[in-house]
Each structure stands twice: as structure tokens, then as C-alpha cells.
Design brief:
Blueprint: H1 2-10, H2 17-39, H3 44-52, H4 62-71, H5 75-89, H6 97-113, H7 118-121, H8 126-131, H9 145-159, H10 164-192, E1 200-204, E2 207-211, H11 228-248, H12 258-272
Helix pairs in contact: 3-4, 3-5, 4-6, 6-9
């Protein structure tokens, strides 16, 4: 018993055979993907679609779906993506139900985020999608995958009708995408810009604050994270700093020396005489 315990304790830090096998499989898959990209005419979007619609227990994430829908606007990638999805949906196999489920996720995202022609493209797959509605499966954790697949297939069938639901979902997806892009560009502008002047009127707790333009390199004041007392104190310090800088600037008006003025006046008088 002591020998077994020592062996088990010594192997606690080492990776198990299952983990080693998983890492080796991932390594070989990556090498195969690289070789296909170099030696064949396969595209990255095609590889993404193949991986997203395989029997992986994990559904494709948002980033993968976004890359696929963006690539679908290119004619060559569109043809490759659609061909893969048609092959996945040509027949519904209950043993490989995850392939069909992941394929429906990609089709749904293409319907709402991809080209408008997707709705016409997958009309030929309606019969197979309807068959998925009768699927029943509950896993060992108690999750009803059959219900999830039925809801997904029913939603896609409604989107394929090309009615108001499809238009609403596409408009919603477009507004959401524009909002995210606008927020990202706003963050880039605010983070990349240097300290500039603030001009305008803002209110804080009923207090009206007039901000004057400041051209020197000072930190901006965040109104939303300051109380009124702290804000007024910072404004006073900022105005004092501005006055100090102005006092250090050389005066534009020349100081007149009275003695020099008298000498100049007498010299001009003697010259005239």
C-alpha cells in the first residue's frame, strides 16, 4: 500500500495520459491546418466553418461566428462556407446531433449578420431542419438538448420565411454592431488624444460649471467622479496655475527708460539745430 501511495503521490504533478493525448491531438490538428493553408487552396474562413460545425461539445463562440459572417460577404468565401453548411445539413443523424446543432447556430448568425442571399440559399434545407424538431435528448446533467434543438430549428424556419422577423433581427444586429464600433472608436479617440481645452457648460448636482479653454498640458477634470467641493478646489488650483504661467510670460509692451528718452530727445534737438 505504501508503494502504491508513493507512486500515486509522485504522479500527482505530472499530466495524465488523457491530457497528454488531448494536447498531442490539438498539436497535430494545428499542423494539419497549417499544411492545408500552405499546400491547398483552402481559406481560413473555410477552416473556421469546418471547426465551428463539427461534433465539438462546445458551440462556436461569438468571435468565430463574427469572422465567418464577415468572410461571407466575399464571393469565394461565401461559396465555400455555404457548401460546408449544405453538407452538414444534407442529412440529420441523431447520433451526431451536435453537428446539426452547431451548423444551425452558424446558419442563424449568417441570416442575421451575413449577406441577404443567405435566406434564399438555405430554403432547400427546410425539410431537414423540420426533422430536427422531433429530436429528443437529455444529457447526464439533466439538460434538455432536444428542446434546445427544437427551438433553434423553429427560429431558423421563421427567419427563412423572409418576413418581418428577419428584417427586425437584421436591423437589430446592424444597430448593435454600429454601437459597438462607435464605442470602440470613441475609446480610441479619448485614450489617444492629448490633454486639450474644455469649452462648454456642464451641470453637477444642480451646480452650473463654466469650463474655460485650457491649452497647457493639464489633467482633465472628471465631473462625474468628484464632489462639488473637490471640483471647485481643482478649478481654483487650475486657474492659479494658469495665472502663474501668464505672469512668467514676457510682457509684450516694452518698458520705457525715462533717462534714455531724455537723451534721445536732446540728441534730436541738437541735430535739428
Amino acid at each position: 500500500m505504501s508503494i502504491l501511495s508513493n507512486n500515486s503521490s509522485s504522479n500527482d504533478g505530472a499530466p495524465s495520459f488523457h491530457e497528454f493525448k488531448k494536447q498531442a491531438s490539438f498539436f497535430f490538428k494545428e499542423k494539419i491546418k497549417t499544411a492545408r493553408l500552405v499546400l491547398t487552396d483552402v481559406t481560413p474562413a473555410q477552416l473556421l466553418t469546418e471547426e465551428a460545425t463539427d461534433g465539438n461539445p462546445l458551440s462556436p463562440d461569438t468571435r468565430t461566428l463574427g469572422s465567418i459572417s464577415k468572410a461571407a460577404f466575399e464571393l469565394d468565401d461565401y461559396t465555400r462556407i455555404v457548401e460546408i453548411l449544405h453538407k452538414r445539413l444534407v442529412k440529420f443523424e441523431r447520433k451526431n446531433w451536435r453537428v446539426s446543432y452547431n451548423s444551425l447556430i452558424v446558419v442563424e448568425h449568417l441570416l442575421t449578420h451575413g449577406p441577404e442571399s443567405v435566406a434564399v440559399e438555405f430554403e432547400i434545407d427546410k425539410d431537414v431542419i423540420e426533422q430536427m424538431g422531433s429530436f429528443q435528448h437529455i444529457d447526464e446533467k439533466g439538460f434538455n438538448w432536444g428542446l434546445a434543438l427544437r427551438k433553434k430549428s423553429g427560429r431558423i424556419l421563421k427567419l427563412l420565411e423572409k418576413g418581418p422577423l428577419l428584417k427586425e433581427e437584421r436591423d437589430r444586429a446592424r444597430k448593435l454592431t454600429r454601437g459597438i464600433q462607435g464605442f470602440g472608436s470613441f475609446c480610441q479617440r479619448s485614450s489617444g488624444s492629448s490633454a486639450q481645452g474644455i469649452l462648454g457648460v456642464q451641470t453637477y448636482g444642480g451646480l452650473i460649471l463654466n469650463f474655460f479653454p485650457v491649452t497647457m498640458k493639464t489633467k482633465r477634470i472628471s465631473v462625474h467622479h468628484l464632489t462639488s467641493k473637490i471640483l471647485l478646489r481643482k478649478l481654483k488650483n487650475q486657474s492659479r496655475a494658469t495665472e502663474a504661467l501668464r505672469s512668467l510670460r514676457p510682457s509684450r509692451t516694452k518698458q520705457r527708460n525715462p533717462k534714455l528718452q531724455v537723451l534721445k530727445k536732446t540728441w534730436f534737438q541738437r541735430r535739428k539745430s
